[in-house]
């Protein structure tokens, strides 16, 4: 699709989101329609993300359905459950829900309240992730170290590709969070690295393409370089304690 077609589809998707809210979620206070279709970046297989907010719910849920030929992923909340998931995502360094709320198009009747919630999500995003520290930081460094070490020996190409598949998200997290940037899952990881540093993104892309083909040298070098920014390999002295309740009497 060209830019004009994408904009037409974006307006159709927004109108469909409004009608889906009215017909499927009677009583909802407002919603945020978001996703690549609404941004004018979608493909023929893209869906509408719809964050629906009720005045009060017993529990939140998510569901998938098709409305007016658009696939829809709906995340149904009240303000308290929405705040819980926004907080949980931002604590993890991957603010999926905060992004959907902050960038979504407001639909529904209570637009004033929707704008207030949206502004809070945008402020959380602007503040950036918390600094890497503590057990989660040690675990991330350990996981990247462990997978990088698996690349050091001589392995068949299919094993190198499998190791690279596991390392992809962990290394992306270390690159982004280690530089004080939010991380992302799936397709968002390379997008965010590209936004941060085009040269680093190109190196990241080449290293993983080569590793997918069975050549892991460039990927190992990249992982080692990133680990060096965090004190080097994390192995000697690493310790992770199990929770006290991790026992079962037979």
Which descriptors would you attach to this protein?
250 residues, alpha+beta, five-stranded mixed sheet, 9 helices, globular
Structure description:
Helix content is 54%, strand content 12%. It has a 5-stranded mixed β-sheet, sandwiched between helices. It is built from 9 helices and 5 strands, in the order αββββααβαααααα. The mean pLDDT is 95. The protein has helices spanning 3-24, 79-92, 96-103, 111-127, 134-150, 157-177, 188-196, 198-212, 217-228, and strands at residues 30-34, 48-54, 61-67, 70-78, 105-107. Helix 6 runs parallel beside helix 9. It is of the alpha+beta class and 250 residues long. A hairpin with a 2-residue loop joins strand 3 (61-67) and strand 4. The longest helix is centred in the first third of the chain and has 22 residues, at 3-24.
């Amino acid at each position: 699709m060209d830019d004009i077609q994408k904009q037409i589809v974006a307006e159709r998707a927004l109108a469909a989101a409004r009608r889906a809210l009215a017909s499927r979620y009677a009583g909802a206070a407002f919603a945020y329609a978001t996703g690549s279709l609404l941004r004018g970046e979608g493909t023929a297989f893209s869906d509408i993300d719809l964050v629906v907010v009720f005045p009060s719910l017993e529990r939140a849920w998510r569901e998938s359905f098709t409305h007016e030929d658009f696939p829809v992923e709906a995340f149904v909340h009240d303000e308290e459950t929405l705040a819980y998931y926004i907080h949980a995502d931002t604590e993890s360094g991957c603010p999926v829900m905060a992004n959907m709320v902050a960038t979504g198009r407001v639909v529904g009747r209570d637009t004033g309240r929707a704008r207030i919630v949206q502004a809070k999500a945008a402020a959380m995003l602007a503040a950036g992730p918390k600094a890497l520290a503590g057990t989660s930081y040690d675990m991330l460094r350990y996981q990247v170290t462990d997978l990088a070490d698996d690349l050091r020996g001589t392995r068949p190409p299919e094993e190198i590709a499998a190791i690279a598949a596991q390392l992809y998200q962990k290394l992306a997290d270390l690159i982004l969070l280690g530089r004080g940037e939010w991380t992302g899952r799936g397709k968002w990881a390379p997008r965010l690295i590209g936004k941060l540093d085009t040269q680093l993104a190109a190196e990241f892309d080449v290293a993983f393409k080569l590793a997918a083909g069975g050549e892991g040298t460039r990927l190992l070098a990249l992982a080692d370089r990133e680990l060096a920014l965090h004190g080097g390999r994390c192995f000697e002295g690493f310790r992770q304690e199990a929770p006290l309740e991790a026992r079962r009497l037979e």
